[in-house]
């Protein structure tokens, strides 16, 4: 993959994470890309498809990713970038790209438009998602919703904020009181049957289900306490890296759908306020809907 830059940092240099500069760069890139995307809503000329007829891509996705790459590399030319539009579609290619990218000490994980289908249809629920992993550890996560002008920012160990106000997960302790978000990914082989089984099991137990069509925004909404939990099978690193840090820094929990700890390669994700986490995981297991 030509998009990855080799990391030339001397291993003997002391390791200091001063995430402030990185965060500022992530915020700036997300804001600029977000403005660009919003200005293009309703103007898409060429609609491409990727892994399936439902998996859309536009010139705006590609342009926004270029913009983010340029902005990040201007500041950090020796950092690596794993961006959705630089990777061949398909789970195996994504896994291979991540394996290669993981070797880099500083890895930016970028989804230029999360919610492309919404963007194409003019459904105003899409976002830019940018994360920085330092030696494999998520250190900065930024999600920008240009429609509502909401900038969600998390720094490892320092909490998460939306426009300067600390975010915190919600307090529901039972499924009956919970509002749950889920995603319907384009994959119809594994994800669709899993989702139908999960819906049948979970819908009768909860207050409500929402499926907005942006993994990043759903995770940001878990962080901000706007939904109690979110799950989806078949995600890629760029869909959730920034959002996972937001949820964790807001006091929430993130695992795979079997309850194992999240890592950057986790594809089947449950994020919650912590209180109802086990209930979601056990419901997915009971329904045979973990995606595994
Ligand atoms: C998609 C969105 C959608 C989710 C899919 C993702 P994209 O990302 O997050 O909500 O259900 O799994 O692939 O393709 O719009 O960047
Ligand atoms: Ca995405
Ligand atoms: Ca995308």
UniProtKB/TrEMBL annotation:
EC number(s) reported in the record:
3.1.3.25
- Annotated residues that bind Mg(2+) are located at 84, 111, 114, 239
Whether Plastid counts among this entry's keywords is no
The domain of life for this entry's organism is: Bacteria
User: Could you give a single Gene Ontology term from the biological process aspect?
Assistant: signal transduction
Where, if anywhere, are coiled coils annotated?
none
Describe the reaction catalysed, as an equation: a myo-inositol phosphate + H2O = myo-inositol + phosphate
Keyword match Zinc: no
An annotated Gene Ontology molecular function: inositol monophosphate 1-phosphatase activity
Cofactor(s) needed, names only, are: Mg(2+)
Q: Note the PROSITE patterns from the entry.
A: IMP_1, IMP_2
Alphabetically list the UniProt keywords: Cytoplasm, Hydrolase, Magnesium, Metal-binding
Location of this chain's protein in the cell: Cytoplasm
Which InterPro entries does its entry note?
IMPase, Inositol_monoP_metal-BS, Inositol_monophosphatase-like, Inositol_monophosphatase_CS, Inositol_monophosphatase_SuhB
A cellular component annotation (GO) from this entry: cytoplasm
- UniProt cross-references to PANTHER family, sorted A to Z: INOSITOL MONOPHOSPHATASE, INOSITOL-1-MONOPHOSPHATASE-RELATED
Q: Which family does it belong to?
A: Belongs to the inositol monophosphatase superfamily.
Q: How does the record describe its quaternary structure?
A: Homodimer. The rRNA transcription and antitermination complex (rrnTAC) consists of RNA polymerase (RNAP), NusA, NusB, NusE (rpsJ), NusG, SubB, ribosomal protein S4, DNA and precursor rRNA; S4 is more flexible than other subunits.
Q: What does this protein do?
A: Might be part of the processive rRNA transcription and antitermination complex (rrnTAC). The complex forms an RNA-chaperone ring around the RNA exit tunnel of RNA polymerase (RNAP). It supports rapid transcription and antitermination of rRNA operons, cotranscriptional rRNA folding, and annealing of distal rRNA regions to allow correct ribosome biogenesis. This subunit may play a central role in organizing the structure.
What name appears for this protein in its UniProt entry?
A: Inositol-1-monophosphatase
